[in-house]
Amino acid sequence: MSYAYKLNEDVRHQPQGPQGRAATEPPMIYTIVQHMPIESDGRLRYRIKCKSEKIERVVTEDQLSYSQ
């Protein structure tokens, strides 16, 4: 299984609300800073850093899309 996004690539992160519901916050632009190990559930995870704030998150690939 390979990662869809490369290191230092800009991506759009769509936050999720409680229990996976759609969040009301707009998507923000982040930069991929690390590929995380593949977890036992098989989902790919990334460490991302916000471009406008000093926030880092670990997210799954399904929460990301290409920045435009």
Explain what the structure shows.
- The chain is mostly beta strands and 68 residues long.
- It has one domain (1-25, 40-67).
- The chain contains no helices and five strands.
- It has a five-stranded antiparallel sheet, with no helix packed on it.
- A hairpin with a 5-residue loop joins β3 (45-50) and β4 (56-60).
- It is globular, with a radius of gyration of 12 Å.
- The termini are far apart.
- Residues 1-26 are annotated as: Disordered.
Q: What is the radius of gyration?
A: 12 Å
User: How many domains in all?
Assistant: 1
The largest β sheet comes out as: 5 strands, antiparallel
According to DSSP, the number of beta strands is 5
Strand content: 35-45%
The rounded distance between the terminal residues' Cα atoms is: 25 Å
Q: Helix and strand succession?
A: EEEEE
Helix share, percent? under 10%
Low-pLDDT runs: none
Strand order of the largest sheet: 4-3-2-1-5
Structural class: mainly beta
Global morphology = globular
Mean pLDDT: 87
Helix segment tally: 0
How would you briefly describe this protein structure?
It is built from no helices and five strands.
Keywords:
globular, 68 residues, mainly beta
Ordered list of secondary-structure elements with their pairings:
Blueprint lengths: L9 E4 L14 E8 L9 E6 L5 E5 L3 E3 L2
Antiparallel strand pairs: 1-2, 1-5, 2-3, 3-4
